[in-house]
Amino acid sequence: MLLLLTLIIAFALQFFLPWWIVAPVSFGLAAWRGRNGWAAFGTGFLGIGLGWLLLSAFIHFRTAGILTNKVGQLFSLPNPTLLLLITALIGGVVGGFSAWAGYCCRRLF
Amino acid sequence: MKIFLALVSVGVSLALVIALNTSFGMVPPIGKFLSPFTGFWQNAEAKEGPLITKVPVTRVQADVKVLYDDNRVPHIFAQNNYDVYFAQGYVTAKDRLWQMEFQTHAAAGRLSEIIGARTLEMDRFQRRMGMVYGAQQALKAMLADPRSRQMLEAFTAGINAYIQQLKPKNFPLEYKLLNYAPEPWTPLKCALLLKIMAYDLAGGSDDLRLTNILRKYGPSVTKNLFPDYPFREDPIVPPGTPLDFKPLPIPPKPTLFMASQAENQVQREPNPELGSNNWAVAASKSATGYPLLANDPHLNLSLPSIWYQIQLVTPEMNVYGVSLPGAPNVIIGFNEQVSWGVTNVDADVMDWYELKFKNKLQQQYWHANQWKPIRKVSEEIKIKGAASVFDTVLYTHHGPIVYDQAEQVFNKQTPVKHAMRWVAHEPSNEILTFYLLNRAKNYTDYQQALTHYTAPAQNFIYADITNTIAIWPNGKFPLKWPDQGKFILDGTDPAYDWQGWIPRAHNPHVVNPPRGFVSSANQFSADPKEYPYYLNWQFAPAQRGIRINQRLAHMQKITVDSMRLLQNDNLNLHAQTILPALLAAVQPEKLNKAQQQAFQILSDWHFFNNATETAPSIFQEWWPTLDRAIWEDDFGNSPTVQLRYPSRDRTMELILKEPQAYWFDNRTTPAKETLNQLATITFQAAVDSLQQRYGPVGNKWQWAQVKSTDIQHLAKLPGFGRNDILVGGGAGIVNATGAHHGPSWRMVVALGPEVQGYGVYPGGQSGNPGSFYYDNLIETWRQGKLFKLKFLKNATEPAAEKMLVMQLVKK
């Protein structure tokens, strides 16, 4: 449930707000409903990372990977599709740590 | 423990977000860049991307219709001049904003603002060359004419209308990589863009090196090895063309001044291989009974492309061709009555003056028997991530003192403590020339248009529907005494100043010559024995021009396709001229097996630099090796004195006509070398070095692979260019496709009741690396084919009906 909320709310807000909105969203939702540290991190990681993976994969396939290939070469990646995983990972890490921080902060009260 | 964990977790999260939102050196802010909502992913475009059909803008006077064809060429239909240039600005920015801004930043010496301290020396050089000063001079002239003023204002407003609509997530990719934002466009930037062309095409100078040669070898050797006319030439104005003007008297040549040795010199020289071809054939020689015109400007090949195709239509004008992103108008193109094209004129329009300063403060210089003040201009160079650097540029009445201190110079052809006189610092209004050409209906209009043009001087070729063909090497040329500016000049004596200009009507030209064609390939504008004014002592090597003229002289019933084939002609005339003599000079008994094999390949060669031939690779490796062996001992650079080799033409003449010449001896050895020895040794060396790089003689030696034509991204970003394109040709060949430069736009126009245009350039209309249209034209260009250009007569004809529509509507 928390995972789905994180995914949907963050996904929707990112269309209008700067990318780092994922941090306060994960933080807030985990602070509200996080069950323990690990679970909070996991939901944040998956909630944001999945969103980033979904949208980048959608763009990648819809555009025949023209740009994925070029940016992959720019960063010397052996395979351009790695860029999808790296994108998801970066989003996930931000979401995960923010959610964990949200959970930790709630435990103070 | 809880507090500790809370602090740590919040700290880690904040640090992570901040780090991922910051750029470190050349690394973009990773989070911002990778986010699929705001980062680079947003720049990926599907081939059939949607087009916004109605764009509200505040400044247009009436609605403008833009039709995009299947190569994404915009065809702009507007009701008036203001709207058509507004729309040109808007659609060009939509496709090429980053390129336009980056180029003008480079011209203005502002790259460090976006890249950081590593471009500081380049920025200083641009400012010291007076690039902004030249652009300001040009802008004054442009704003003084109501037509160019309106055009600049409209074009600028169009670009800014696009920039205002941009959200950060839609910034062109390169802004995201370098983490900056577009700034508002200004008319000065249009002027700056034209100054880049002036630098690329008319920013070369050999004065320093030749002065050093003159000092070392004296006038007679210098004259012999660096003659004022090559041994084989075929000038643009055919010999025997009568003059239709009465020449002005030439200023008297002062008694010889010998510059003192100037120690320092330049690295960033304009590429000598930049050139171009154009020609037009008369109705009498064409299959259609109307003239045909062809043009292929040779420039550095890069992505986004240098050119942008566009059609501009108003009730008074309908023109199609290529524009330079960042400047209004069509630069090379055609309308229903006329067609025109350009190649560079290698006139000497940059000279250096040795100065005498009053004292070490360098505040005054001696000229015309008095001390004159030096003007100081302070320049602030902003640097990304560091404090600004302030620089002061000194100006004399000649022009800027490019380097006023003995220091490491950015461009080694720059003599230190010398003033530069350069035509690109003159007030000029080139855009008015194009404004008038775009609307030209006849030869008189064309001639009228050319009078507004200053720099970089171009050979404007012309053909029209009433069967007039013509060519004018056109620009503003200083009225010089013979050889003025071949060497460094005396800055104290007004006799060495530029003392006037060649009247426009006296520029070299020819109209409807009896031979039935006009052409140019950067060679001599006219034979100095027949033309009364001095333009330069050296132009581009004559081989391309000679070949074009040979072919055109023989061709009859010429069609678009025969013009296209001539543009793709791979004959290596240089090799054809010199190779038989060189092969005869090689001592075959001294060759090993691989060398013999290579020797055989060269002997069997028919001198065409086709992509799959092996012989061109051997020849193009051999010639420079031989050239070095002949000249390095006499004309090699030393760390303190910059020299240059005699021209390829003079070297060929020496081999063919003076094989016993003293110059073949290597002075650094006690033995006396002969041409035969040099030819043999260098042939062996060339084959050995090919073997080392490509293994035994075989497919890997093929010319296209050895030459390796690359089209790099403008900022040389890896992955954003196209490498190793399989094409033939080469420097000095009609198909001038080299490693990094070549035909940047190939166009053939068949005039007639229904004008037909054909063209291609190696790139695509979009400047976005994430677009299908970024590089989609390259394959057709590679094959030497042309697209039929969709010249629309109106916005409702059947061809137009199928096109995508974007409308700029009044808000």
TrEMBL record, chain A:
The protein's UniProt keywords, in alphabetical order, are:
Membrane, Transmembrane, Transmembrane helix
The source's domain of life comes to: Bacteria
Tell me which species this is from.
Adhaeribacter pallidiroseus
Please report the name of this protein according to its UniProt entry: Uncharacterized protein
Provide the transmembrane region boundaries.
Answer: 38-61, 82-103
TrEMBL record, chain B:
Ranges in a coiled coil: none
| Residue positions binding Ca(2+) | 348, 351
Q: What cofactor(s) does the depicted protein rely on? A: Ca(2+)
GO biological-process terms attached to the record: antibiotic biosynthetic process
- Family affiliation: Belongs to the peptidase S45 family.
List the PANTHER family: ACYL-HOMOSERINE LACTONE ACYLASE QUIP (PTHR34218:SF4), PEPTIDASE S45 PENICILLIN AMIDASE (PTHR34218)
Q: What is this protein called?
A: Penicillin amidase
